[in-house]
Specification:
The complex is a heterodimer of chains A (282) and B (57). Chain A is α+β, with helices and mostly antiparallel strands and 282 residues long. Chain A contains nine helices and 13 strands. In chain B, strands 3-4-5 form a three-stranded antiparallel beta sheet, with no helix packed on it. Classes of the chains: A alpha+beta (282), B mainly beta (57).
Chain lengths: 282, 57
């Protein structure tokens, strides 16, 4: 089998996937996207690759290159649809909720007044998230209407139009951690807690990783969330409430896992490569 | 281990033999974050791209 790997930054995850592909005796085509040109409608097909792992850290590069590869008849992991929908928190939450996956109470408002009304209805504190974005950037918590008005001032000064769509969510009082679970073609091979004294637990912001043992209910929730987003290889973030419920907060389609491998010792890259080969061969 | 030229301070940067395009290196002498690329068939270093608004998972 020949496996493609498209990327724009060679991180530890890409190194681990490359090693996993090579060590299993599979062929590898590395494609460094910033140096590549694609002519649309040309007859270049990826006949020499069986499938491609999409690993661009830039969301729009990931979307663009996946669209082009799929238009050439090449299977990409993850699919354009899954990357697109996971990259937009509004679409992710809507898609999960419509399939009965438990998510925090969320409202979408299109104006300052609408945002204030939504927050009053949900009850403070609330969390305001950009619908596009990652690593916890620009996510803010409003403990009061004054806080929310300050945040809205910043959002209204942003030039990107997506900041005019206000994603307002119930603040979940977490037990000093959240959960990052990995969904690999319908299985949940490993998971970590992301522990932080801050309310934002992203490891990109300093949250510490530790191995997590999920309950059967949590594993089932991860599988249902992954299935709802179209399957493949996903990172699924869970929040534990004080009432003992678990909610899905986000889904990541070009998933990072170096911290997980470091603390669990689990060969996640190997699992991703083996399962993807198995599923796409069948 | 080949040596390439830092595009910021023009000092020498040692690169592992198995380095790949897109790999990042910090030049210890000047602190620049550099990215390995292949240009016209030869390996070279350029200033690494800054983190974009759409970067992430």
């Amino acid at each position: 089998m020949i496996i493609g790997l498209v990327y724009d930054l060679l991180r530890h995850e890409e190194r681990m996937l490359i090693e996993a592909i090579r060590s299993r005796g599979q062929g590898l085509r590395l494609v460094f996207i910033p140096e590549k040109i694609d002519f649309l409608g040309s007859d270049s097909r990826g006949d020499d690759v069986d499938f491609v792992f999409q690993r661009c850290v830039s969301h729009y590069r990931a979307l663009a290159t996946t669209a082009i590869l799929e238009s050439q008849g090449i299977r990409v992991v993850n699919s354009y649809e899954t990357i697109r929908d996971s990259g937009d928190k509004l679409v992710t939450t809507a898609r999960l909720a419509s399939r009965g996956v438990k998510v925090p109470r969320t409202a979408i408002a299109y104006s300052r007044e609408g945002a204030l009304m939504a927050a009053r209805e949900i009850g403070y504190p609330v969390v305001i998230k950009p619908i596009m974005g990652s690593w916890g950037r620009m996510i803010a918590r409003a403990k009061s209407e004054d806080d929310l008005l300050d945040i809205m001032d910043y959002r209204e000064a942003m030039s990107s139009p997506h900041f005019k769509i206000h994603y307002i969510q119930q603040y979940v009082e977490k037990p000093g951690r959240d959960i990052r679970a990995f969904y690999v073609w319908g299985e949940v091979p490993t998971a970590i807690y992301r522990i932080s004294q801050r309310w934002k637990t992203n490891t990109a912001l300093g949250g510490k990783a530790a191995p997590a043992n999920l309950t059967e209910e949590q594993v089932d929730l991860v599988i249902r969330a992954g299935d709802a987003m179209g399957g493949g290889v996903l990172g699924i973030d869970l929040l534990e409430t004080r009432e003992g419920e678990t909610l899905v907060s986000e889904v990541n389609a070009v998933v990072e896992f170096r911290n997980t491998v470091q603390v669990t010792g689990y060969d996640l890259a190997g699992k991703i490569v083996e399962e993807t080969i198995r599923v796409l061969r069948s | 281990m080949p040596e390439l030229k830092c595009p910021v301070c023009f000092g020498a940067v040692k690169i592992p033999d198995d380095a790949l395009d897109g790999e990042l290196f910090e030049h210890e002498e000047c602190g620049a974050q550099l990215e390995l690329v292949t240009s016209n068939g030869s390996k070279t270093l350029r200033l690494a791209e800054e983190v974009g608004e759409d970067w992430g998972e």
